[in-house]
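Milestone M4 deliverable, item 7.
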Amino acid sequence: MGETIWEAVDGLIGEKLVSPEAVLEAVLTANNDAGLPAIDVSPAQGKLLHLLARMIGAKRVLEIGTLGGYSTIWLARALPADGLVVTLELDPRHAQVARSNFEAAGLADRIELREGPALKSLEALGSEAAEPFDLVFIDADKPNNPNYLRWAMRLSRPGTVIICDNVIRDGAVLDASGRDPNVEGARAALSFMADESRLDATAIQTVGVKGYDGFAIALVTQ
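Output delivered:
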């Protein structure tokens, strides 16, 4: 009964607050047709990312984990015309689908997709001495969460917002003895944010069409 209600409420939120858009629906259809795993953020979650980026006046966004680009498009739409999302994707097939989606959404000029292992792409970004990012969204392989968070700190500034997805894992983060790598990665993300003195963080539990999970959200303070 719980999950049925969660999904129904998500439907209501989508109907009332996240107006259906043909472009975004086409992205999800393209991802499904290409056989990509159905692990995109939900429409309500995409709108949340969009609003957070707008709230802080973000111009530069780093996304670690592109998949088919659904969340990327939500983020890119929040930016001014001279804004940029740098998004990192390991899988060439996912990257191909994402690039096609960016073109269809009319946002290819606002998105830079870097293909290959994210840690190598992050190292390249670090060596380029690029401007710091205003928002970082981490939604990739969970065991690497601590590594991604370290890079997020290196590529940020005071005031940067860092968001890490999938940190609740159906409540499995409560089990300290569990050995699921994804759960361990979620716990590691929470521990990193708790131990890093330059971060002020919290986490939000989420329920809906994506089940029971959550986001950790942190502000870089110094």
